[in-house]
Each structure stands twice: as structure tokens, then as C-alpha cells.
């Protein structure tokens, strides 16, 4: 009879097992998040993106499975990121008239939000004594992962570190958004969505879609525009920052 380690070794060699495990973990975490809906603080902490990441990291650490092997197993999910991003155009199209009416306030909010995101990351990193390479890596933390990795690589940062900062930013944004909106009494779905998209990219947009279709539409718009704007001005911001400091 095979022992449990031998059975696990055989199971872990099947790539689909990691795909199934990821879906199962997210389903359990999402159910836990919904169960905690009457309790705002526990619900914020139990956001399924955060709890799923923690649980999967624990599983990989305990089993000793390399991340590269896990990623190969869940690659179909990675392939769906592109179509999922394109699908954000549907709620955007549904709110096209409202976007036209608010185009100038939205563009001003985009410019301020993008600059605050980069400068606050650089300031915090400078106060914590991060190296120049780490500061470059943390600066594009508020844009979606592929763009942040490309920008960090082009500017001389660490690509892996940049991806880590982006994921951490997204999770923090998704967890803290609802309590902050209640604390600051921000009730507008447009303001909530645009803030989430600028500050917390795709993870924030997924949280916005849970809140309402309008919130998700404006989060998707902000995420896309912030990616473009950050790509255009990041080098200027970094040049000015390192010239001053």
C-alpha cells in the first residue's frame, strides 16, 4: 500500500491538480467572505483574493512545490486575464454617456491620483531606506502587473519586486476600500470605482465589480487610463525625484 507522501507526490505531478486546488481554495474563501457580510471589519479582512493568496502560499510552502511548477498548472487562468480585461469594455459601453459628461473631472482625478500613487510610494520607500533599484520597482505599483513589470525593467528596477509590490497594492486596495469609503462618506459609485481603478488596478476593479456594475465600469476605465498615463510620465517622475533627492 502506498504511503501518503507517495500518493501526494503522484498527485502533485498532475498539473490539473493545481488548477482544481486554486478553484477550490477561491470558492471556499469567497463563501467565507460572503458569510461574513453582516460584519464589515471581518469581511474586509477575509477578502477572497487575500485569503486565497495566503492559503496557496501556505500550501506551496508546506508541500515544497516550486512556484514555477504551480504556475505551469494554473496557466489557463493566466490566459483568461486578457479576455477578462477586454470584457470590462461591456460595462464601460453601458456607461459611455456618463463618461462623456464627466470627462474633464475624471481626467483631473486621473492625473492627481496617478501622481499621488507614484510619489507616495517613492516617499515611503525613501523614508524606509530602500535602494534606488527598489524605489524604481515600487513606483509603478498602482498599474496592472504586466505594465508595471515592463516599466520597472525599462527604468532599471527589479521585475519580480515590482510584481510583488503591485500584487500587495491590489490586495490592500481591495481590502481597505469599503471601510475607507464608509469612513470618508464617499457614496458615489463613480468616485468609488475610479479611485479603486487608479489605486488598486485589476484587483481593485474586481472588488469594484462586486460592489456594482457602474462602480466596476469606472474602475476598469481608471485602470486602463492609469496604465497609459503612468507609462508616459513615470520616467519624468523618477528623473525629478532622483534629481531632488
UniProtKB/TrEMBL annotation:
InterPro entries: CidB/LrgB. The chain crosses the membrane at residues 12-32, 44-69, 75-94, 106-128, 159-181, 217-244. It holds the Pfam family LrgB. Its main location: membrane. It is a multi-pass membrane protein. GO terms for cellular component: membrane. The keyword Membrane applies. Keywords: Membrane, Transmembrane, Transmembrane helix. It is found in: Membrane. PANTHER family: PLASTIDAL GLYCOLATE_GLYCERATE TRANSLOCATOR 1, CHLOROPLASTIC (PTHR30249:SF0), PUTATIVE SEROTONIN TRANSPORTER (PTHR30249). This is LrgB family protein.
Amino acid at each position: 500500500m502506498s504511503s501518503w507522501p507517495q500518493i501526494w507526490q503522484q498527485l502533485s505531478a498532475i498539473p490539473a491538480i493545481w488548477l482544481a486546488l486554486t478553484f477550490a481554495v477561491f470558492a471556499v474563501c469567497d463563501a467565507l467572505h460572503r458569510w461574513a457580510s453582516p460584519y464589515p471589519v471581518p469581511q474586509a479582512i477575509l477578502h477572497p483574493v487575500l485569503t486565497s493568496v495566503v492559503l496557496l502560499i501556505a500550501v506551496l510552502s508546506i508541500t515544497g512545490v516550486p512556484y514555477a511548477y504551480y504556475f505551469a498548472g494554473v496557466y489557463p487562468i493566466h490566459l483568461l486575464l486578457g479576455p477578462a480585461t477586454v470584457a470590462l469594455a461591456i460595462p464601460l459601453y453601458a456607461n459611455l454617456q456618463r463618461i462623456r459628461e464627466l470627462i474633464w473631472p475624471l481626467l483631473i482625478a486621473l492625473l492627481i491620483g496617478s501622481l499621488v500613487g507614484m510619489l507616495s510610494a517613492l516617499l515611503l520607500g525613501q523614508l524606509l531606506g530602500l535602494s534606488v533599484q527598489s524605489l524604481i520597482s515600487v513606483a509603478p505599483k498602482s498599474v496592472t502587473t504586466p505594465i508595471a513589470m515592463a516599466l520597472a525593467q525599462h527604468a532599471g528596477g527589479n521585475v519580480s519586486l515590482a510584481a510583488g509590490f503591485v500584487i500587495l497594492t491590489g490586495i490592500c486596495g481591495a481590502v481597505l476600500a469599503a471601510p475607507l469609503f464608509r469612513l470618508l462618506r464617499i457614496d458615489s459609485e463613480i468616485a468609488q470605482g475610479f479611485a479603486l481603478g487608479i489605486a488598486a488596478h485589476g484587483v481593485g476593479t474586481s472588488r469594484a465589480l462586486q460592489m456594482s456594475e457602474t462602480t466596476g465600469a469606472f474602475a476598469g476605465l481608471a485602470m486602463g487610463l492609469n496604465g497609459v498615463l503612468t507609462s508616459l510620465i513615470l520616467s519624468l517622475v523618477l528623473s525629478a525625484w532622483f534629481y531632488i533627492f
